[in-house]
Structures are given as structure tokens and as C-alpha cells.
Predict the structure.
Amino acid sequence: MSSIIQAGFLQTHPEFGAVAANRTQAKFLWGERTADLLVLPELFNTGYQFRSLAEAQNLSEPIPDGPTTEFLIDWARASGMVIVAGLAEREGDTLYNSAVIVGPRGYIGKFRKAHIFDTEIQFFQPGNLPFTVFDAGFAKIGIMICFDWRFPETARTLALQGADVIAHPANLVLPDCPQAMITRCLENRVFAVTADRVGTEQRLPEESLKFIGQSQAVDPDGTVLVRASEDREEAQGVALDLDKARNKKINGHNDLFADRREDLYRIGGKG
């Protein structure tokens, strides 16, 4: 089996609350392109800036039995792709900022955002699922969501579990992430595909959010293979040679994971 796969991302500009229209627009934006793996942004179907808990509850859905997961499964079956996409998940009375992974055979799994950003805490509980690597057949795929990038343990945990690619749905407002993901890939020798959104939301009078775009794919050497614009909807695809992520050697003497000094990685030691 070839180690080369085709990965893609969508950079969207959702209309807040227009769930069905946002789903349709995402599929239209991708068009007839082909890929093995497609990553969509965080909260791609709803938009980001909720005004109240009641609004967030109304726009959230169960996973995997909700209409958006069913839409993505139908899309995956028709296209042959594995799709990772972010949406608001409702489990009982509890809401999570989640991502679902589906494929041609149906539902594969989900991840709940671990590190909740800023005012999201008013609506979403911190994720209670472990960082998991999902076997898509052609690749081992880890998932993190937006602000999870800020914590290096996230990518390292996924890489140590054998992730070839980290799928990273995002709604980025801070400027640092695109460059920081270069480091995340370099320090773990892993691919990452960040799918961000564009546009501005100002649904609260005291807070205007401008999303930075710049969705991208980065390779294990820290090379940006493709980076989108800061302000336009885009669909991009790129070839990834997964053998690069599976080889953790830096040179003839050093291996990124074998050389880890777990005996020294502790707090409070004395020299």
C-alpha cells in the first residue's frame, strides 16, 4: 500500500445559526475534488459566538445520531473520504465543543475539545474523552480542536500513540497558531492539517471576533505545504507522504522518541 495520501481542508465563512445552509455550502465549496482525508473547521455548521446557553443548546446536536453527523456520513459514503468536522455536541443537558470523524463505512468516533478558550466556558464543558488516535485504514489520525494547539502535550500525546496526521478543526482569533503548528509538527515529526474559518462575528455588543483564516497543512519537517488566505473561503488539497511521519529519526544517531529522557521529565528535581 502506498504511503502517500491526499489530504484537504475547507476554510469557510459560516452564517451564524444557518446550520443546514452552512453544511450545504461546505459541500459545495469542496465540489468534485477528491481526497482521502478532509478536515472542516470547528463549529463549521453553527458559527462560533453564542449569545446564551439556551441558544447553544438549541444549535447543538447529539453525536452520532444528529443530523450533521448523518449529513457528513452520507457525504463520506458518496465521496469515499474520511471527514473530520467540528460541531457543538449535546449529551443530555451537557454541551461539548466536539469534532466527529466519519468515513465511507460510517461513524468512526469523536473528540471533545480539552482546553476551552475564553468565553466558551459559558457554554461548553471541558472535554472528558482521552486524546485518541483513530485508525482510518490508510492513516492513523489524531484530533485536536482549536485552542488545544496551545498545549504541547496535546500533539505529543497523539504522536506517541502513532498519529500520522493531526486533524485540527479551528476557529482561530489569536495570531500565533499558524506558526506554532510548525513547531508542533517539527517536535513530533507528524503532519497537521488545520482547517480554520474567516469572517467576523459581533453578536455581542462588547465583543467583536475576527477569525484569521490561514488554514494550512504542515509536514513533519515543519514545512508549510499549503497555507490559505486570511479572508477568503477556500478548498485546498495536498499530498502527504506518511512515511515521513512514521520515521522519527533525526539523523543516524538520534531518534525523536527513543531519545526522550522520561527519567528526567519531572517537576521538583534537584541538580
User: Anything to note?
Assistant: Residues 4-246 form a domain with the Nitrilase/N-carbamoyl-D-aminoacid amidohydrolase fold (CATH 3.60.110.10). The chain has a mean pLDDT of 97. The longest strand covers residues 82-91. The radius of gyration is 18 Å.
